[in-house]
Structures are given as C-alpha cells and as structure tokens.
Amino acid sequence: MTNDKRQITIIGCGNLNRSDDAVGVIVAQRLQHYLAEHPHRHVQVYDCGTAGMEVMFQARGCKQLIIIDASTTGSEPGAVFKVPGKELEALPEASYNLHDFRWDNALAAGRKIFQNDFPQEVIVYLIEAANLDFGWELSSAVKDSADLVFAEIKAMIESGVSG
Question: What superkingdom does the record give (predicted)?
Fold first, then answer.
C-alpha cells in the first residue's frame, strides 16, 4: 500500500434488530456522523453488522484496529471491557456457512492470510448486553456505556494518540 494508508480503522459489529446487540453498530454510526462533520483522513469507520468476513477485509492495511461489539459474559449490564485483540483471536472451525465466521475469527484468519498487511495493534471494546431480544432500542445501561465508548474513541481520534 501507499504511504497514505489508513492509520486507524474502527469497526462496529452487531445486529440492529436485537436490542443491545446493536451497540457496536450504533457507536460506529455515531462515529461516522462525527467524522462527516470533523474529517480525519487517516481514520475510517465501518458498520460490519454480523459479517465477520467483511471485518477481515476492512481491517487489512491499517495500523490500528478498533472493534466495538456487545458481549454476554454474565457481567453487569453495561460493563465495558477493553481487551487486546490478541486475547480474543480464534481460528474459525470448519463450516459451510459464512455467518459462522465472526470478527474473532476474522482477526485470526486475517493475521494468517494478510500477515504484515494486517494490524498488529487491535483493541476490542465489549459492552455487556442486558437484552438481546428482538427490538430496536438499547437498554439504558448499554446506552450509557455506548456514550462512554463513543467519547473515549472520539477523544483518541481528536488527540491523534492511539489507545
């Protein structure tokens, strides 16, 4: 790639039809709106929904990758976990269905396939879901945490400092 390659790629994951599972997508959309008004040429934001394969290809060529998604660990709803991507990478199991290829699979497969053209610095923000039922609204605890994650990533973009 050329010298003007993307420095930071931010990817929101989740399902907009399943309440708190949408949190990653919602934060990504908010960041897209922010960047439309305050452009940063070395920052790209993508809504990858539930498409793990898209995560792998959008991450290729950037220096730093940030992923935002919901989690279900049994922790208190709205808890935010900021985890190095290396701790969450998982090679995909054999499957005939690309829907089974998640972002954690994308991290492991992308590193193996793209090698040095895949980001070495990966940060994953996981926000503990309260409700994964069909619906279009975030629970209040998850909404508050989404606001905090948005503000932290926005501050990183504004300062030009990686997290």
Answer: Bacteria
